[in-house]
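Example 3.
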Amino acid sequence: MSEFKQTFNSSLGKKLIMALTGLFLCTFIIVHLGGNLLLFSNDNGYGFNLYANFLTHFPPIEVVAYILYVAIIVHALYALIVTVKNRRARPVGYAVVNKSPASWSSKNMGLLGSILFFFLVVHMSDFWYKYKFTNDVAFKEYRTDLATNQTTESDYTPVSPTFEHSATVENNVEIVRVKDIHAKVAHSFSNIWYVILYVVAMGALSFHLLHGFQSAFRTLGWVHRKYTPIVEFVGTWLFAVIIPLGFAAMPVVYYFMSLSK
Amino acid sequence: MNLTLKVWRQKNAQTAGKFVTYQAEGISPDMSFLEMLDVVNESLIHKNDEPIHFDHDCREGICGMCSLYINGHPHGPKRAITTCQLHMRTFHDGQTITIEPWRAAPFPVIKDLAVDRSAFDRIQQAGGYVSVNTGGVPDANEILIPKVIADEAFNSATCIGCGACVAACKNASAMLFVSAKVSQFALLPQGQPERYSRAQSMVAQMDAEGFGNCTNTGACEAECPKEISLTNISRMNNDYLSAKLFREEHAHENNG
């Protein structure tokens, strides 16, 4: 075991951990964006609520979710450890700020990461925690006539406080009762401060990944004349443009929808 | 040319230093930066002041001895040159120039602008060599090496070990230096027997010296007087992680 300990305590080993957890988080946000695009489907939250229910009640996904939380914590913790060591490596700073041409994002990964961490605390305590551990989120009942495929919705008040969800079929009518997280999302995104926080955080995500995605590949040692341009292209357009824009569009669209109500 | 110099003066590693302002007068634009400092030092000696201590040797950009962090750039504002090759025509009359030593914990200040870079020597001694048996001179081109590989290895081998990469890095990381020294052998057939042990021992020494961690900002590559590329760092990462995680360094025990 001591050989592994030595490997992961070395400067390159710590960076390996940061790169691997970072790339894992990158794959997660693709899935997260994909699922959340259901917010844009015009079904008053039916698809989104069923999706949220599936995520929280399908055991394999729950296992992956806990690996994800560990990855976030490890990534942040190692960033802190590495930063402390970097500061110690230059106890006396320069009087003239370094003018070496390096990208702004590469020099501010710690700041960007801190914004993201603060955002995650707010984001998870507002949706994840309230959904999973409190009864703050109301329930909805969806009745789908299987013959006509017509869905009607109504509020549902559970008889027991421990009720989580149910799916039954009676007389050719499918009855699904799930937590209405969609209403909670719509409520949160009608608050302008919430929208500003989300948009700023997605800006931070964009710059964090603009450097982070390709940097992780460099740390792993995967640099190649043929493939590095592809990695940089994906890091820029998918992770720094499309994904942050997609996420930022959600609070913005919901805010304007709340204004027109 | 008349210039205002703000120079870091520090008696030794134990005492605290401070900036002292000097006027450099009657400087020719054709002088090198070090010659300008020589002129300033002459005037200081005439005034019975202690001259400014700075490192220099060959003054033709190949020894890696000169340093100086000039107006926010190691080796001054121009690309791909050392301080000794920087000429005063790069500056304009009346300009204020701030001169600082390399700043890094593993590079303690010896005096004024000179720092102790023996940490680099210790990293080199940890594995920056190939073990060969001496004997008759081998025939040229006995071992064939593809041109691309030879070019890459020679590019890495141009590192003069000046430490500008450490000075430029926001984390004071020595990765560009170490990776150039690892790469120049890792690419060539003669370097293969010790390839994985070399990467491990040189990185271990780098960590022991107290250099920071690489965050791939690319400042080192931009400031390197020999234009050593960031690719070296990835190449070393690959060798190091491969050595640590996938190579077997000891023979299997004989169970039969």
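Residues 138-179 of chain A form one domain. The longest helix of chain A spans residues 228-259.
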